[in-house]
Amino acid sequence: MVKYCNIRLFTLSFLIVSALNLTGCTEENVKFKQIMDKAAIAENNNDIETVIKIFESAIDNISKDDKEHEVTYLEHLSCAYFKIGRYDKAEPAMTKVLNLKTAKLGNEHQDVACILDNLGQLYMTTDNMDKAEQNFIRAKEIREKTIGKQHQDYATTCNNLAELYRKTNRPIKAEPLYRQALDIYIKNLSENHPWVATTYTNMAELHRQTNRPKIAEEYYIKALAILENNSTLQTAVTYNNLGELYRETYRIEEAETNYIQALEIFKESYKDGHPDMASTYNNLGLIYNLKGNYSKAEQMHLKALDIDYKYFDKFHTNIARDCNNLALLYWKTNKLTQAKEYFEKTLSILENYSRSNNIQHPQYEPTIRDFTKLLSEMKFTKEQIKKEIEKLKKQDIGEIQTTE
């Protein structure tokens, strides 16, 4: 039986500049600085809801002639939406910023590359891998022309493109990009910079994914050494992912400890839940499953599913992950009808992913095998099993049933 987790492995760099070099003390510029300072204070307190309210209000009350400041507000607002998982609002805001900046600055400007990179991260998070790749490649091309291949912003795009290649099962393309990003960060920043830690975490995931657990653990520990005594979201993601490595290598108690540490940090930052928290709840569910505490495992998986339904549409692969883990749990506890239902939901979503991205999801075949074994246990004949699988393949995505 196959269990899988889909974990976010990078955090969006969301920085609000509070000290601005204003050209002239016009009323608009003074108001602009006040708004940016208020937003910076809220962001430093990790109060992103207040950041959103500040920028939404600023946009609603801005002068019609103040287009320059409006774009800045909208850009920061789109990043705030992204950070707390409001992807449906982040995309149109980022797209509008891209159009406005392209019209003003042209297609080859560094600011345009920045928005393309942010959009790439958004599309990767929401499973639109084709669009994500197009945006990252375009951002990389612009940054190579405008700031050169030794700049840290160029490294960030290399890192993000590597993440996409890793997530779409192209590790040979991913690894040299990670190494290029790491070399640039160490040269331009320092060996102990948080961006170096992020790249270590991503490289650890690549090695974990390609069955090199010892090297993966070394990179996770390097990342945590940099992030020591720093309870940031990046720290939580690293604890979560190290927990995954320990779970996969049957170091169950160490895995549980890391998941709990991650969850404690996430709870401080995400009062109403977040996909990152859902991943950790799911992983804890897998631990409780291994320990034989099936009721607690079910509770964790259902919490994850509830959070992910709030943040993603019903065809997102995070929903597939949640449903798959519930299917495996119900199968193990002999609740075969419920297991069948959740396997069908999983496979329907993975079918949709394959159609949308023109590439088969790496978990599709393993899940088909599990589904086939389950149906055999339920006394389905070979012909009936074949019909069940064909029905899922032909199913229109609008027909997929969910229980939110």
What is the topology?
Layout (H helix, E strand, L loop, with lengths): L26 H18 L3 H13 L6 H17 L3 H19 L4 H16 L3 H18 L5 H16 L3 H18 L5 H16 L3 H14 L6 H16 L3 H18 L5 H17 L2 H18 L5 H16 L3 H22 L6 H14 L4 H13 L10
Helix pairs in contact: 1-2, 2-3, 3-4, 4-5, 5-6, 5-7, 6-7, 7-8, 8-9, 9-10, 9-11, 10-11, 11-12, 11-13, 12-13, 13-14, 13-15, 14-15, 15-16, 16-17
Describe this structure in words.
This protein is mainly alpha-helical and 404 residues long. The protein has 18 helices and no strands. It is globular.
First-last Cα distance: 26 Å
* Largest β sheet strand count, sense and barrel closure: none
Number of helices: 18
Q: Whole-number radius of gyration? A: 22 Å
Report the β-strand fraction as a percent range: under 5%
The secondary-structure element order is HHHHHHHHHHHHHHHHHH
How many strands? 0
Could you say which overall geometry the principal axes of the C-alpha atoms support? Answer: globular
Q: Share of helix among residues?
A: over 70%
Q: What is the averaged pLDDT score?
A: 88
Which key phrases capture this entry?
404 residues, disordered C terminus, globular, mainly alpha, 74% helix, single chain, 18 helices, disordered N terminus
Quick description:
This protein has helices spanning 27-44, 48-60, 67-83, 87-105, 110-125, 129-146, 152-167, 171-188, 194-209, 213-226, 233-248, 252-269, 275-291, 294-311, 317-332, 336-357, 364-377, 382-394. It has 404 residues and is mainly alpha-helical.
